[in-house]
């Protein structure tokens, strides 16, 4: 049984529609654990969401499922997503996890290993890419990616790329969700930048709204758009799939007598 997500036996390829809180059928392949995983998937209306905290609650699995919960909803090829790590080597874990679930849930999907792209039966695509230079943004400038994801956001020393890629989180398809999603552990070169951007810990779990006034230069029409931001914290102690031995192992490997604050952060987040 997987140790970071709820897994049920069954032969029919289904994902429990947790974002709508519909009870999961018995043949569900994957469903979120109660707590932070479910909370993240419920908030599909939030533009910008950070899933942070300790190791173990299933943050990367949730990132993968956050994108695919909209596959097969009628958007077809217009539902395009992209998830970044700093290097292609770092993408190996995400690729392994995505193969574990996607092939079961969508038997007709395919993964192109040469360009790290998932294609689903309705034409939707999820790209897995590296972003390790400022110029990498130019590869996507002018594109439409209504889903933009970042795994281990604090690995980047600053949020310049993260913010620039928000400009491609758009779509010309009416009713299309627009989601910027990120996961992270408490430590990394960008720890301070992420804490400042999401105002952690004081704004943890609080939806923040930011209105923007937009004027059409051709018609002069003025509209207001509100962007929302939320940080959701998860811990290994939410994970009912991991046994006590796993959690004891976690405690042993994160114990750092010379740096108690490091140990506390790994257990409880920033």
Question: What's this, in brief?
Answer:
By secondary structure, the protein is an alpha/beta fold.
List the helices and strands and how they pair.
Blueprint: E1 6-7, E2 30-31, H1 36-42, E3 48-53, H2 59-68, E4 80-85, H3 92-105, E5 110-112, E6 117-119, E7 125-130, E8 147-150, H4 160-164, E9 179-184, H5 191-198, E10 208-215, E11 222-234, H6 244-254, H7 260-268
Parallel strand pairs: 3-9, 3-11, 4-7, 4-8, 8-9
Antiparallel strand pairs: 1-2, 5-6, 6-7, 10-11
Helix content: 10-25%
What is the makeup of the main sheet? 9 strands, mixed
Here the CATH topology equals: Rossmann fold
CATH architecture descriptor: 3-Layer(aba) Sandwich
Shape: globular
The CATH C-level class name: Alpha Beta
* Counted beta strands: 11
| Classification by helices and strands | alpha/beta
Strand order of the largest sheet: 5-6-7-4-8-9-3-11-10
Nearest-angstrom radius of gyration? 19 Å
Assembly level? single chain
* CATH homologous superfamily grouping: P-loop containing nucleotide triphosphate hydrolases
First-to-last CA distance: 30 Å
Low-confidence stretches: 1-24
Number of domains: 1
Which range does the strand content fall in? 15-25%
């Amino acid at each position: 049984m997987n140790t970071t997500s709820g897994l049920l036996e069954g032969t029919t390829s289904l994902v429990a529609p947790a974002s709508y809180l519909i009870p999961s059928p018995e043949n569900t392949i994957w469903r979120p654990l109660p707590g932070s995983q479910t909370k993240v998937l419920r908030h599909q209306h939030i533009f910008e969401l950070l899933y942070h905290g300790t190791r173990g609650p299933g943050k990367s699995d949730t990132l993968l499922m956050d994108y695919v919960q909209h596959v097969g909803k009628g958007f077809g090829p217009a539902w395009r997503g992209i998830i970044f790590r700093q290097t292609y080597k770092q993408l190996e874990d995400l690729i392994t996890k995505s193969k574990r679930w996607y092939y079961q849930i969508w038997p007709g999907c395919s993964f192109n290993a040469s360009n790290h792209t998932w294609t689903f039966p309705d034409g939707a695509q999820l790209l897995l890419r590296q972003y390790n230079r400022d110029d990498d943004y130019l590869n996507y400038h002018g594109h439409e990616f209504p889903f933009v994801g970042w795994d281990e956001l604090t690995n980047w020393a600053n949020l310049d790329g993260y913010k620039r890629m928000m400009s491609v989180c758009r779509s010309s398809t009416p009713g299309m969700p627009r989601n910027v999603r990120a996961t992270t552990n408490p430590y990394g070169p960008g720890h301070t930048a992420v804490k400042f951007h999401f105002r952690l810990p004081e704004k943890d779990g609080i939806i923040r709204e930011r209105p923007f006034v937009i004027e059409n230069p051709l018609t002069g029409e003025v509209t207001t758009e509100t962007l929302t931001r939320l940080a959701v914290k998860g811990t290994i102690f939410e994970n009912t799939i991991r046994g006590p031995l796993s959690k004891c192992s976690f405690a042993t490997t994160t114990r750092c007598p010379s740096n108690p604050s490091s140990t506390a952060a790994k257990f409880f987040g920033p």
